[in-house]
Fold this sequence. Notes:
Blueprint: H1 2-31, H2 35-62, H3 65-113, H4 135-147, E1 150-153, E2 174-175, E3 178-179, E4 181-186, H5 193-208, E5 212-214, E6 231-234, E7 238-239, E8 248-249, H6 256-263, H7 274-285, H8 298-304, H9 315-334, H10 348-360
Antiparallel strand pairs: 1-4, 2-3, 4-6, 5-6, 7-8
Helix pairs in contact: 1-2, 1-3, 6-9
Amino acid sequence: MFEFVSNFALIAVVAASLFVSTLYLVRVVRYRRDPLRWLLLGLLMSLALTNAPILLHRIDYTLPLWVGWGTRLAAAIIVIWTAKPLMVDTWREIQAFRRVAVDSWRVMSQNDNGSQHLPREGSNDMAMSKKVATTESLVRFCRYAERKGARVGEMHGFATVHRVHSANSFHYDKDGKYGQAADINYGAAGTSHAERDMLNHLIVVARSFGLSVIYAKYGTTGSASAHKTHLHVDVGSWSNLGSKSGAFRTTPGDGVVWETQPTIHAMQDNLSGDETVKRLNALREASNHGGVDFPYGVEFAQNVVDTIEDDVWGVNSRGAHDHTMADLQKVWKSAGLYKGKIDGIWGSLMDNAFISFKNQF
């Protein structure tokens, strides 16, 4: 009985060592990163694999029983501990590959039966579409998502990109340091209400930049069926939020609001919401053109122009106001909204620019 159990334990250790060695080999061949490190570790595992039978055989017949079992236990712990990060990566790749496979199968089956015909620009709404958004817009979005507590994955420059996506996926493309697609999650893995609320908000922000999004927001039509637990964002020309109509063309966007917000010290989200408009209005009203009025209070206006909030609109506040005005004029002039000179003064041309800003964004 002892010999049977001993041999079984030996086979288990050897099999585990062989499995880990195979993972190392795959890592070297597939990813081509840190090849020397992985080759050395693979060599050590191979040596352990070939010498384990001889070592354990001698231990069983020359040393006490507990030494043999202790050696097996130690070997098993070492193998499992060493293989843990590789096994985690492998499991993640299996899950990601499953999502992509399901996505591709659904798209192909829907195209076959005529229920959904995707545009000519690509065979599915996640790959092979024309690039319409800028890499800078995607990077800005990802940084905003991280500031909101979301996790950015599967994008060069932010996280490892695993070889589990379709061959022509934007995930593999790079523009300089950064990738062309990202997968976004928030909070604990799953589909919690908090995560869905955050991803729905991030969809609005991503679309304001002209980025494409794929997420099962309204349903699971097409590729949205494979994006129930994460938001996919890329620089392509087609989006899918799971509605019955399926994929739709991504609308253009830009970063004018994004560039405007830091000049008035508003949170950067590229959305011209109530807070951004309120701050711009406070800046206008505090100018001579606006009558040096403070509809939201002096301290709020001081916060807009980034000066000491002492509720006294004096020389320092006026100077900060003019400096803020000049920064805003530069942004709006670059965007084609403002036609005047950079003088730090809010006049009729700035009124026109403000109206255009509100109408466009």
